[in-house]
# Entry
Amino acid sequence: MVGGQARARAPRELANDPDAWPNADLSGHVAAETVQHIARHLAAAIDAQHLSLRRLATASEVNRQAIADLLAGRSWPDVATVARLGRAVGKSLWPGPNGDGSV
# Structure
């Protein structure tokens, strides 16, 4: 795996309080902070648009369980997954100047 053991633990497991996901303190874990940002913004879009995971899965062509795992912080989503989900909800999920904000 590229990056060695960097992704051996799920993003939420890097938090001081994993149960606080997606608002947990992940200080110093920039990759996990990015996944948390994506999960938080995706959850907000799902709620605002009254989407079910099934409907989002169909619209994005991303497996429903993959979406659930991302939202729960149990997985490290790849770029294609984030891009498809962002397109399906009509907003950039990636943090930074071209996304919804900085990490």
User: Anything to note?
Assistant: The chain has a mean pLDDT of 90. The first helix runs from residue 30 to 48. The two ends are 25 Å apart (CA to CA). Residues 30-98 form a domain with the 434 Repressor (Amino-terminal Domain) fold (CATH 1.10.260.40).
